[in-house]
Amino acid sequence: MEGTAMDYKAQVTNSILSVLNDELSSAEVYEKLAQPKSLSMGDLAFPAFSLAKVFHKAPNQIAADLVSKIDQTSYEKVEAKGAYINFFLDKGKFSGQVLTTIIEEGSTYGQNDNGKGGNVPIDMSSPNIAKPISMGHLRSTVIGNSIAKLLVKNGYHPIKDNHLGDWGTQFGKLIVAYKKWGNEDDVKRDPINNLVKYYVKFHKEDKEHPELDDEARETFKKLEDGNEEETELWKWFRRVSLESFNKIYDKLGVTFDTFNGEAFYNDKMDEGIQILKDKGLLVESQGAQVVKLDKYKLNPALILKSDGATLYITRDIATAIYRDRTYKPAMNLYVVGSEQTYYFKQLKAVLLEMGLQSAENLHHIPFGLITVNGKKLSTRSGRIILLDEVLDDAINLAKKQIEAKNPDLEDKDEVAKEVGVGAIIFGDLKNERTNNIDFVLEDQLKFEGETGPYVQYSHARAESILKKASSIDFHTTDKELDDPAAWETVTALNEFPHVVESACKDFEPSEVAKYSLKLAKAFNKYYAHSKVLVEDDKLGARLALVKSVSIVLKESLNLLGVKAPDAM
């Protein structure tokens, strides 16, 4: 794997194979190697149990026999402990290779070419226009953005597609609400908050006046038919919504490659329906048109209602055909909440039945809910927490903490923004994405514990040490560091390429967030117990370690979409 400092599992595998006579294959030995619970027990351990039947001996005897035959010159030591063979790596040699690789490769450390440049559309964020971006939209946005960064690191070409909810009967409701209770000046002054106020009022009023729903359906039909007044209102709502959304995306540091919303596919649905008809897949059921999915053990997918009206799936079929044709995707990703899991199983099954080339590599990437005090957020009920306000609160709280800790810091406002916004993003991504999150702002902003500011502060500490040090040519200095106190940090640095690969494969940014916490903790522990800036023959090696930590923490945060300030 490109970017790996040293695959010491392969080295240990070869050492074991050299004293066996084909009793186990290389893959079997490699698979059985494990990291002991404590570094005092070695860096890798091989269990001899698997050889008991072959050698007809007790496993602890087998371990002792094999250790006596293993060439230990490239290790600090190899010892038998019970039924295990424990390998202790040569710390100086190993750290030299790890630190040399990181300093030479810089921010490209851990990069690979697994994706071979393949296109990967990512359906992400996808707010509904004329509604505010709430905390409920945070997860799809930041998970999708981090996955896109991981894809780049793994040699793919992501295409971030903000599939806006800009079509459907809710726009009939909104237009009716605006005409009844709206005011043009109010919308111009504060578009999103006023539009959502009308939408919420509609849902309160229609409980007592159900005829409003009929009026909304008729209004949406006019919009579908291209009626001028309804179309102009819809375009206006869409434009002011996007302007508002982009301010929030700018704060988050998230960009998109396309904003093709549902309306974009409105005139593209007939082709998908025709393919289903031509393949004999569309069948009538109680007046509606469905695709039977018995062979996938799924309920029939409803494609057209009995009145011929389309549904989400009709548009998603058109979207999939368009992406398939436009991007020829290596994968097609949908970062959408866990509650849509069954729906995406149906969509994938329908696309497979249609014979769509990219359907096999369609992946729904589900995630849990964000709750606040245990309550689900809902626009319709008016119980929403605006993401913009949360980000502003986080920035203000970060600024207060910086004022208290480092009042003379330059660029305080910019650092507060990087820390505050970074805390919100990291606070989301450190959780396995399928878990639910109950949001507490103050917990995210702590400079200690499992938070974004803790990792950022660790990076800033590394940069501070490097600034205090006399200048060193890292490319020529000796980097062999045999200090046992540094070992945990060195082995953590070596894991980064594997984490990059694994997190991409699992579509799981939390693996990177948890790794960054592990590296930051190891480094802070080392710094607390070691004098880095002592002028001796290992000063260069210690500073190379600090430089490597700075590089890898910054790149880890970058993969999460979080900035790494040099001072805090």
UniProtKB/TrEMBL annotation:
Keyword Transmembrane: no
Predominant localisation class: cytoplasm
A Gene Ontology cellular-component term: cytoplasm
Protein keywords: Aminoacyl-tRNA synthetase, ATP-binding, Cytoplasm, Ligase, Nucleotide-binding, Protein biosynthesis
Extent of motif 'HIGH' region: 127-137
InterPro entries reported in the protein's UniProt record: Arg-tRNA-ligase (IPR001278), Arg-tRNA-synth_N (IPR005148), Arg-tRNA-synth_N_sf (IPR036695), ArgRS_core (IPR035684), DALR_anticod-bd (IPR008909), Rossmann-like_a/b/a_fold (IPR014729), tRNAsynth_Ia_anticodon-bd (IPR009080)
Domain of life: Bacteria
UniProt KW Ligase keyword: yes
Name of the top EC class for this enzyme: ligase
A Pfam family the protein falls into: tRNA-synt_1d
GO molecular function, one term: arginine-tRNA ligase activity
Subcellular locations according to the entry: Cytoplasm
SUPFAM superfamilies: Anticodon-binding domain of a subclass of class I aminoacyl-tRNA synthetases, Arginyl-tRNA synthetase (ArgRS), N-terminal 'additional' domain, Nucleotidylyl transferase
Domain DALR anticodon binding: residue ranges: 455-568
Chemical reaction(s) catalysed: tRNA(Arg) + L-arginine + ATP = L-arginyl-tRNA(Arg) + AMP + diphosphate
Ranges for domain Arginyl tRNA synthetase N-terminal: 10-89
EC number from the UniProt entry: 6.1.1.19
GO biological process: arginyl-tRNA aminoacylation
Subunit structure as annotated in this protein's UniProt entry: Monomer.
PANTHER family: ARGININE--TRNA LIGASE, CYTOPLASMIC (PTHR11956:SF5), ARGINYL-TRNA SYNTHETASE (PTHR11956)
Family statement: Belongs to the class-I aminoacyl-tRNA synthetase family.
Protein name: Arginine--tRNA ligase
Classification of source organism: Bacteria, Bacillati, Bacillota, Bacilli, Lactobacillales
